[in-house]
Amino acid sequence: MALKATIYKTELQIADMDRGYYQDHNLTIAQHPSENDLRMMIRIVAFIRHAHENLTFTKGLSTDDEPDLWQKSLSDEIEVWIDLGQPDEKRIRKACGRAKEVFIYTYSGNAGDIWWEQNAGKLARFSNLKVYDINCDDSAQLASLVNRTMSLQCTVQDGAIWLTDNEQTIQVNINPR
Known about the structure:
Blueprint: E1 6-16, E2 21-31, H1 37-49, E3 55-57, E4 69-72, E5 78-84, H2 89-98, E6 99-106, H3 110-123, E7 129-134, H4 136-142, E8 149-157, E9 160-164, E10 169-176
Parallel strand pairs: 1-8, 5-6, 6-7
Antiparallel strand pairs: 1-2, 3-4, 4-5, 7-10, 8-9, 9-10
Helix pairs in contact: 1-4
C-alpha cells in the first residue's frame, strides 16, 4: 500500500518590508511521504520570500517537470520557478528556458557548498537564475515550528525572515550564492 501525503493547514500573516507586501495567506500544504519537516518548512520560507497571489505549491517531489513552487501568469506562462536543494544542471537549464525568473534555495550545509562549488561556473551563464543558501543553523530550528495546523506571523526585512508562532520566534537568514 502506497503512503499518502500528510496535509498541513497554514495561515501566514506576511509583512514584507523589503517589497512593501502585506498580506494574509491560507495555505494547504501536502507533505510528500519522503519529505521531512525541514524541507516542508523551507518550502514555506520560499513562499514567504516570494509571496504573491499567483504563487502556488506544485506536486513537487512527485513530478520531475514541475518545481517546488511556481507563479504563473493568467496566460499560463511561468513567471517564477522555485526549486529547493541541489538540482542538476539539466533541470536548471530547462527551468531557465521555461521561466522568466528561476530561484534555487540550498539548505543542506556542506553538501550545498560542495554542490555550489561544482556548479557555479556552469550556472553563471543563466541571467534569469538566482541561487540562495539558507543557513543550516537557522533551518534546523524551522522543523520545531511544524504542526498540522500552523499560524505564523512572518516579517521580512533586510533579507532576513522572522517567523513567530506565538511560542517562539525564529530568524532565517538567506544568503546569496
